[in-house]
Write a structure and sequence with these properties.
This protein has 272 residues and is of the alpha+beta class. It is built from 7 helices and 10 strands. It is 28% helix and 21% strand. α4 crosses α7.
């Protein structure tokens, strides 16, 4: 599932290419991916312009020139591609939004994901439960320690909880735990101030690095894009079962926690 680095990369790329262009065409191939009937969705978007693209956690918000918002959540397997009709990806698309004569934003893999049209107030209400952004300028070490220092339960469970902190998913939770030298199963109530400090800096390091590398998406965002997917091969423990740990040389283990797979190195990740 795309997480903060992947969605932030998309936000940056979209902001370079689609802002202030009139929407000239809307194709809906799967009505379950939207929250209105097809004709209403199409009529409300046609001739509108995207004036700003915002990311909130794992969501993207397309701000329209009439004050409304397109809210995207890609969920598992979702991705986007921006291109012409000629270089249309050989994939099933659920939604296509055309900008001008030969630029189309293709939404792919929205079997679980969605693209919904809302008012600004509705979006605010829907996303009101989300915790703070991990890389926001207001998220300093003191605030982080206050949030996590009061919690109980496992480290990974807290990192995945979007009500606690927004944007981190299965992959980067494991990578953050590894960078901090903590097991994903480490209990927060037993971590001291030094442990939490390592965790805070590990979170920033991992998310910034992955974002700058383009995230782990499986295909480029557009023709000539060499950034998107750049971190595919850079994970140090996630999906590396049986490989050698790059830090201690031990074998990386795959386990399960609350129904989710978890990867860690027992040689250099500890309970605290």
């Amino acid at each position: 599932m795309p997480e903060l680095p992947e969605m932030e990369n998309y936000r940056i790329q979209l902001s370079k290419h689609i802002l202030d262009l009139p929407i000239t065409e809307v194709v809906v191939n799967r009505e379950k991916s939207i929250n209105k009937d097809t004709e209403t969705f199409r009529s409300e978007l046609t001739r509108r312009q995207v004036i700003f693209v915002e990311r909130r956690g794992k969501y993207l918000l397309f701000h329209l020139d009439n004050g409304r918002r397109l809210m995207l959540h890609l969920m598992l397997g979702g991705l986007m591609y921006l291109g012409s009709r000629e270089d249309r990806p050989d994939r099933t698309t659920q939604i296509e939004i055309g900008f001008g004569q030969d630029m189309v934003l293709y939404f792919i893999g929205l079997r679980l994901g969605h693209l919904h049209l809302h008012s600004a107030k509705e979006v605010e209400e829907i996303l009101s439960h989300l915790g703070p952004e991990p890389l926001d300028r207001r998220m300093n070490e003191t605030r982080f320690n206050t949030i996590f220092g009061k919690r109980r339960g496992s480290l990974k469970t807290a990192l995945l909880n979007q009500d606690v902190i927004a944007g981190i998913g299965n992959c980067y939770a494991d990578e953050i735990a590894f960078a901090a030298g903590l097991k994903p199963s480490a209990k927060l109530q037993y971590l001291n101030e030094e442990d939490l400090s390592r965790l805070y800096h590990a979170m920033r390091e991992v998310l910034i690095f992955a974002t700058e590398a383009g995230g782990y998406m499986e295909m480029p965002f557009m023709s000539g894009d060499t950034l998107t997917g750049g971190s595919n091969d850079l994970c140090r423990v996630y999906d590396r079962e049986g490989e050698t740990c790059p830090r201690c040389g031990d074998m990386i283990i795959k386990g399960e926690m609350n129904g989710r797979k978890v990867f860690y190195s027992p040689g250099c990740q500890h309970d605290r």
